[in-house]
Each structure stands twice: as C-alpha cells, then as structure tokens.
Write a structure and sequence with these properties.
about 675 residues, alpha+beta, four-stranded antiparallel beta sheet, about 15% helix, globular
C-alpha cells in the first residue's frame, strides 16, 4: 500500500456504486450470510461537508483478515455522487478528516510517526503529499479549525508522567480516586487530565487555554472565532457524580472561564447559533448524581447566560446531536423513537417539531451543508452509508461501499412485531426470519438480547442477528422495559428491580412468536452481551424453557461486583450500599444464588481486560454450572475489553455461537 497521501486528481474518479459488483457476482446464486462475511463489510463514518458544499469527506474502514486488523482511510465524494475519491492509503490509518473553513485544506489524524501518538496531518485539497502539522507528546485527542482557518483548537490529555521505556519494573499503582477503574482506560492512578489548547499552524505555537485538575471536552468555536464553549465537570469530586456543565472562554491564553449552565445533571453537546447569540445543547431530565435511566432534552440558552428553554421536554423521547440550520431558524437533531431514529427540525423559539425523515431507515450522524444536511443512514437490508438530505423523506444515497458486501448474500427478512407481557405491558420487538424458510415452518429460535439496558434495537442493519439467522435460526430482538425510545417511565420502570420486568417482557415476546407459529417451543435458545448477558443469566435461572444459552460479559451475582466494576455511582444511588441494602442485592443476584435451578447448557464469554462487567461475573456462573454438572464452557478473549474488537475474535464468537446452538438445539433443517 502507498505510504502517503494520494493526489486526488491522480485517482480514478468512479461513479458511486458503478464498481460495487464484479462480473463474477452478477447473476450468481445468492447464499446465506456467514461469520466470515464480517471481514468483507466496510465501515463508513464521520461525513464532513466541504465549506462550498460540493464535496463530503468521510472515513472508510476495512478489515485485513491476514493481519487480523482494521485500517481506516480518508475518502471524499462529490455532492451529486458522481465522483468518489480515495485520498489516503497508508498502513497506519487515518481518521477524523476536517476541512479548513477557507476550503484550502483537508486535515486528519494519523499516528504515522511511530511513538508520537495521533497527530494532525495537512493536505492541500488540490492534491499533494500530506504533511505532519503537529508533534505533540501523547498525541492529539480532538481538534477543530477556527472560523478564519488561522488557529486550531486542540483537545489534549496530559502526557504520561512516567516514561515506561525507561523503567525496568513497573511502579505500584497508587490509587486515591473514587471511581478508580474504567474499561479500556484501566486503573485510574495517573494524575493526568484533558485540557484545551490553541495551535497556530503557521508559527507552530501552542497556547494553553485551560488547566488544572478538571477535564474539558466537546469544545466548539463561536461563529466569529472569539470564544469557545466546552463541557466540564467542576464539582468538588467529579468521580462521585455525573454532573457536567457548559462553560465559555475567550479564545486567548489566560482568559477567564465563564460558567453558562448550572444544572446538577448533565449538560452536553454545545452548538452555537449562526449569529453567535444562542447555544443549543442537550441536558439530562434528572438532576440526580447519576443518570442511567434518562434521556437527553434539547435546550437553548442565550450566549450571555440566563434561563434555558427546554424545547423537547414534553416530547418524552431522547433527542441528541443538535445542529443549527445555516439561517438559524431551526435546530436539526436526531430523535430516538420506538425501533426508529429519525431526523427532525425544532423551532428554537417554542420547540415545535417537524419530522424530516420517515420510513424504515435509521439515521445517525448529521452535519449541515449549505441549506441541506448530510447524514449516516441504515435500514434492515443495507449497512450504514452516507445520504444527502436534500430531497425526500428517506434521503438520497451518496456512497455505495457496501454493495459488494451485499451482492452475494440473501439476507433474512426483518419484521417488526409487538407482544404483551404477563402483566399486560405492550413490548416492541423485531424478528429475523432466514431467507428461503418455508412460511409454515416453525423454526428454532435464538432470543438475542441487547445490552444497556438503556438502548434499543432499531430497524437498521444488524450484522449479529443476520449472521445468526444465516445459520437457519429465527432470531428475535426485544425492547424490554428499561430500553429507550418508549418514554422515560418505560425506561425507569426497572429501577432497582433488575431481572424482573425485563424477564416478563422477554418471555412474553417468546410466547408471542410461539403462538404465531414462528418459533418451535421445543427448540428455544437465548444469548446476549453485557446487560444482554446479565438478562440471559436471569432467564435461565427463572425458567427451563431454553435448551441452549450464551451469556457474554454478564454476571449472576451483582453483590460480588460492588467496587469491582466501573458502576460505583449506580450501585450507591440506585441500589444503596451492600451494608444498608443487602436484601436488595441478594434479590437481584438470584442467578448464582439459585443456580441449582438452571438446567440450560450455557456458553459463557468475556474479555480478560473487561472493567465494565469484569470476567469474574462469567467465571462465577461457569463455575456454578460445572459444579452442578450442567454442560458449559468458558471462553476468555485475551487482551479484549468489554467490547470484542479483534476481527478474528469477533468471527470466533459467531462460530462458537452457531456451533453451540447447533449442538443443543439441533442444526436447523431445510
């Protein structure tokens, strides 16, 4: 592969999608999706319109199965979709491309210089070799161009105070923080913080904006470049709560920081209005010390300060990623609703909402371009691609990188459904029926449970469930109580009562699929990861209807994880401390304490570096089932955190799932 930047004009400009399918795939018989297909699926992200609105840059990530790694490159596509051009191609990878506001440059982050961390690289948009712009110890975390293109706002984390290359024996971890561990970050013993800096590309001068024992992020320039809004938790002990507020500082070294919001909950995502007079942002509904069961509310506050307008409080749906229209008359944002996620425009005066997109397409990232928007979108049969939101309620598709992935595949049919739980609660779900399955045939079922619990399964492309359905199984996704998208009370209904209402809802959905003649009641399986793994443990301990299970990154003994995982604020605020609320802890720890009720052969999985739901949770359940003589296996993925990221391990997990369910449910027949 080339090691530098490729000149845009030297690349072959292709009609988007024209090269997506090869002659070998045209007219070829379709086949079910397989675990190995994950290597073929490209990932598209971070669309960024050029200042003139004629191009959109983005990141394309691909997998090299031989190297067992991912590589990301920068591409750009013309607004009419006629030219799709690869700009970078190096084994080190590039990401976070940004256009300079004057339109002269495209910058990006890359760690091409070994040992230097991610640095900003600069390329003349007319073509040429990329040049490294920064050389900052520890690398650049985030950055943003000033409106006049003369400065760059940097978000930097303090360099490691210990140079490990000079130490033969690692020093003991001296820990005094309240929340002392975090997944991926590890043990939090280093005295480092994240601060804001101003960088001059011409002189290479670096000026400090913020400093001290706090962290800053989500920084945003004012339209005239005179000030910067950012988010920080400046309470006495930030580890002991989830507060965050918006602050403003003049864009010069030594300036005084001004606090804009004072909500005791979370204030996030500040975005300046085009005239610089207002800031749109999102805040939590609750002002409690933690906000597991919550949803962001869109707000507007004057730049000078004052009482914010809560524009979407009565909507009772999560609203996030606010962006102002160029004329300042509307704020466009994403709205999460029952199995959907759409784009809507809100009046900054009174919050009146106009839904901009409809249909079975889930939108994620949105960015303004001229008088339109560009967005990432996905539907049940199409992985995420970039869409131009300039006409129609579904958008106009720009990129076509996943066409080659889809060409040989016959995907499962994706069908939304609703079911009723034993207490009468209506619950939404989605099922995946394998392609070619006879309409009247009852299929073995895998109930695949989402994590969170505050999230939802939506009508977007779902690789995991498609692969399981490709193995011949009916696969169900259920938005049990605790999920988002159905309102705050639906979300909060499981507060301090885990493993109860969710279990009712999941059983109710299975009952519905059996009653409808879709699922074979004698061949039921269940699987999940994170809170989905926890719920898998609850299900197999509450009922023996499931003949096979796989619990990933879960736990059946909540009491034992107090102080061991990263959720100390949730434990103390939702459940109470073990010495004051032991009965509550024992109640929700029933999978291990009542493990003698479990008869389901269960596969347990975890990453050995998981600090989110530590491996001990899986190990305890595995040990209990081994003691009881129930068929079980424990799979530990070395070097992996809560999310399994290594491609070969991701494939291994799919292969093991299908083999386990084939063994205990019987391989699905034709």
């Amino acid at each position: 592969m080339l090691s530098g930047i490729l000149v845009a004009s030297a690349q072959t400009a292709t009609i988007a999608g024209q090269t997506a399918t090869s002659p070998a795939t045209v007219g070829a018989a379709k086949r079910p999706i397989r675990p190995a297909d994950l290597y073929r699926l490209p990932g598209i992200s971070d669309p960024q319109p050029s200042p003139d609105g004629k191009w959109v840059s983005y990141t394309l990530t691909t997998i090299d199965s031989l190297k067992d790694s991912r590589n990301s490159d920068i591409w750009m596509i013309s607004w009419d979709g006629s030219q799709d051009v690869q700009l970078t191609s190096s084994p080190d990878g590039e990401s976070r491309a940004r256009w300079s506001p004057d339109g002269r440059y495209i910058s990006f982050l890359s760690s091409r210089q070994e040992g230097k961390g991610s640095q900003i690289w600069l390329m003349d948009r007319r073509g040429g070799e990329g040049k490294r712009l920064t050389e900052i110890k520890g690398g650049v975390g985030d950055y943003a161009w000033s409106p006049d293109s003369k400065k760059i706002l940097l978000t930097l984390t303090d360099p490691d105070p210990e140079d490990s290359s000079k130490i033969k024996t690692t020093k003991p971890y001296v820990i005094d923080r309240y929340q002392y561990k975090q997944d991926v970050e590890g043990y939090r013993y280093k005295k480092v913080h994240t601060h804001l800096y101003l960088f001059d590309p011409a002189s290479k001068k670096l000026d400090t904006l913020t400093k001290g024992s706090y962290d800053e992020g989500s920084a945003s320039w004012s339209p005239d470049g005179s000030a910067i809004a950012f988010v920080s938790n400046r309470t006495e002990d930030p580890d002991n709560n989830e507060n965050s507020d918006i602050f403003i500082i003049e864009a010069k070294s030594g300036a005084t920081i001004r606090r804009l919001t004072d909500w005791k909950g979370t204030d996030n995502n500040p975005r300046w209005s085009p005239d610089g007079k207002f800031i749109a942002y999102t805040r939590s509904v609750s002002d409690e010390a933690y906000h597991m069961y919550d949803q962001p509310v869109l707000c507007v506050i004057p730049e000078a300060g004052g009482t914010p307008k809560l524009l979407t409080q009565s909507l009772d749906r999560p609203v996030f990623s606010p962006r102002w229209t160029k004329d300042g008359r509307s704020i466009v944002a994403l709205v999460e609703d029952d199995r959907e996620q759409f784009i809507a425009a809100f009046s900054p005066d009174n919050g009146v909402m106009k839904q901009m997109t409809t249909g079975l397409r889930v939108f994620t990232t949105i960015e303004p371009v001229s008088d339109h928007f560009v967005a990432m979108g996905s539907d049940p049969q199409t992985p995420a691609e970039i869409y131009a939101m300039d006409s129609g309620a579904m958008g106009r598709r720009l990129t076509h990188h996943t066409d080659a992935f889809l060409a040989p595949l016959e995907l499962a049919a994706v069908v939304p459904f609703t079911a009723k739980s034993s207490d009468g609660t209506t619950v939404s779900g989605i099922y995946y029926r394998p392609a070619g399955a006879p309409a009247t045939k009852k299929l073995p079922l895998i109930l695949y449970i989402h994590g969170g619990p505050v999230s939802q399964d939506a009508l977007s492309f779902d690789m995991s469930r498609q692969i399981l359905a490709g193995g011949g199984y009916l696969v169900a996704a259920v938005n049990y109580r605790g999920s988002s998208g159905r309102g705050l009370q639906f979300c909060k209904s499981i507060y301090a009562d885990w493993g109860n209402k969710e279990v009712m809802d999941l059983h109710g959905a299975v009952d519905y699929l059996v009653k409808e003649g879709l699922a074979d009641p004698d061949h039921l399986g269940v699987a999940g990861w994170s809170y989905g793994g926890i719920l898998t443990d609850y299900l197999i301990a509450s009922d023996n209807r499931f003949k096979a299970a796989s619990s990933g990154a879960g736990t059946g003994f909540t009491l034992s994880l107090y102080g061991v995982d990263q959720y100390i604020n949730q434990y103390n605020n939702e459940l109470g401390t073990p010495w004051t609320s032991i009965d509550r802890y024992l109640k929700i720890s029933y999978p291990l304490l009542k493990a003698d009720r479990i008869k389901t052969p269960t596969l347990f999985m975890s990453g050995d570096k998981d600090f989110n739901v530590p491996t001990a949770g899986s190990e305890q359940m595995y040990q209990a089932l081994r003691t009881l003589g129930i068929p079980t296996e424990l799979i530990i993925y070395p070097g992996q955190f809560h999310g399994i990221s290594l491609p070969s391990y991701q494939r291994d997990r799919f292969d093991r799932w299908i083999a386990w369910f084939n063994k205990y449910l019987g391989p699905p027949g034709p």
